[in-house]
Amino acid sequence: MENKFRIEKIVAREILDCRGDPTVEVDILTKGGSLGRADVPVGRSTGKYEAFELRDGGKRYRGRGVLKAIKNINAVIGPKLIGMDVTRQREIDELLLKLDGTKDKSRLGANAIVGVSLAAAKAAAQSLGMPLYQYIGGPNARILPVPFLNLINGGKLAATELDFQEHIVVPTGAKTFSEAIRMGTEVYHELGRILEKKWGRHSLNVADEGGYTPPGMNDVRQAFDEELRAIEELGYTDKFALALDVAASHLYDRKGGVYLIKGKKMTREDLIDFYKELVKTYPVASIEDPLEQNDFDGFAELTKELGIQIVGDDLFVTNAERLGKGIECGAANALLWKVNQVGTLTEALDVAKLAFDNGYGVQVSERSGQTEDTWLADMAVALNCGQIKTGAPCRSERTAQYNQLLRIEEELGASAKYAGKNFRRARLKIKQQQ
Ligand code: PGA
Ligand code: ZN
After folding, report:
1. What are the b/e assignments for 389-398, b being 16+ CB within 10 Å?
2. Closest CA to 161 of 208, 246, 244, 220
């Protein structure tokens, strides 16, 4: 009998992400008739050490076309993968690495490689008649993540005067994921009402990740004050924490060795002191990229001093070598997990394991350029990592992820567990309860 898991056909195409930029979509068809379709997300506030995203250049789509990556899939990768067993994820990913042969995946493009890697996983899950979260995570995949809802946008992802990129609310006090989404969305709407009144109706324009854009707001404390007001108005005071993605690499002036904030220079020490004050004044549970992407020592100092979750995004770029370096010196205590920063699912899963094995948390994350594909939501449950960051609860590419998590919660029924206050150690806590 023919093996139904055999890869029969691979087709890649150019589609659009939520910002109207082209990105890669890959279909993998198996002999048994299963289809795995995966879309590749796109970063804008990218880290320097990410795997290479291949763009066409030239006039078409302002140089942002991905036809070269598509061609690499259809002409180079496809013929080699046909006939392989789609459930052999590691073998497939190793072949992709071999075909590319570069350290940063610049020959075939990380966007080509990651599309194929994820499409294979989806096709395998399909062939086995399993949901993706279960295929990747096994029978114990059942922790619903705390959503990190980015309600006010700044930095590179919004036309605001806010230097910091993401001002996030975290419904840690909900009992279930669906309750968390309801509470978070209520806060989102209440915040809209408050911002409109005080900062004007243009506040309600939303940025790349669906967060509001209050004109004239230029300080993280103003954003936090308004978010806390919305939370308090609804009577949710103890049920929410706050979080930040500073994306500090984009505020750093390498030549001068200083950060530029509100048009003023701040040294690394000034910034560290600022965070200490901020954490004393506000219920901040997590800060991502508080310092620039090469400052491992600064990250280590902050991690020790602040006692909250410190997440490495541009710092680690989902890369084992960089995370290993961080683990050695105690830089950050959580990894932001973005599959396309590294390029294959296998590598990304290995990096997550490295983080867990060393007591680091893992936060599954969108890119600011998403599509309506929902593999991200499944991965958050598969990893039992307890936390996901995928923007505000509006704009379809964001709600697609939250809606998928609602479906997974329903499917898991009584065995679903919401990570809640334990989001940093969700796996450990759940194990202790078993
Ligand atoms: P991205 O940034 O634009 O690279 O996706 C989001 C983030 O910094 O977390
Ligand atoms: Zn980030």
Report:
1. bbbbbbbebb
2. 220
Tell me which of 342, 368, 389 to substitute to probe ligand 1's pocket, judged by most ligand atoms within 8 Å of the beta carbon: 368
pLDDT digits (tens, 9 = 90+) for 233-253: 999 999 999 999 999 999 999
24 Cβ inside 6 Å of ligand 1: no
Mean pLDDT of the chain: 97
Q: Which residue's CA is the nearest one to ligand 1's atom 8? A: 45
- Domain 2-129 in CATH 3.30.390.10? The answer is yes
Give me the pLDDT at residue 433, please.
Answer: 65
Q: Is the CB of 303 under 6 A from ligand 1?
A: no
- For ligand 2, the distance from its centroid to the CA atom of residue 288, given in whole angstroms, is 6
How large is the angle between the packed helices 177-199 and 220-233, nearest 10 degrees? 120
Distance CA 100, CA 107 (A): 6
**Of the candidates 199, 225, 221, which has an alpha carbon nearest to the alpha carbon of residue 212?**
199
Banded model confidence at residue 434, pLDDT cuts 50, 70, 90: low
pLDDT in tens, 308-318: 999 999 999 99
Ligand 1 pocket check: which of 45, 286, 289 to mutate, most ligand atoms within 8 Å of Cβ?
A: 45
Residues 37 and 55: beta-carbon distance below 8 Å = no
Q: Does domain 143-433 have CATH number 3.30.40.10?
A: no
Q: Which amino acid is at 350?
A: D
Q: Mean pLDDT, to the nearest integer, of 153-158?
A: 96
Intervals of CATH 3.30.390.10 along the chain: 2-129
Residue pair 256/245 in contact by the 8 Å Cβ criterion = no
Does 318 contact ligand 1 (Cβ within 6 A)?
A: no
Could you tell me the distance, in angstroms and rounded to a whole number, from the CA of residue 266 to the centre of ligand 2?
Answer: 20
pLDDT at 225 over 70: yes
Give me the helix-helix angle, 396-412 and 177-199, nearest 10°. Answer: 150
CA distance 85 to 63: 36
Does 42 contact ligand 1 (Cβ within 6 A)? no
Task: Tell me the pTM.
Answer: 0.98
Give ranges for CATH 3.20.20.120 in the chain: 143-433
Using a 10 angstrom Cβ sphere, with 0-12 exposed, 13-18 middle and 19 or more buried, the burial of residue 117 is buried
Q: Are strands 264-266 and 284-288 parallel, antiparallel or unpaired?
A: unpaired
Q: 365 C-alpha vs ligand 2 centroid, how far in Å?
A: 9
413 contact partners, CB below 8 Å, separation of at least 6: none
Say how far apart CA 338 and CA 345 lie, in whole Å. 10
Sign of CA dihedral 82, 87, 91, 92: positive
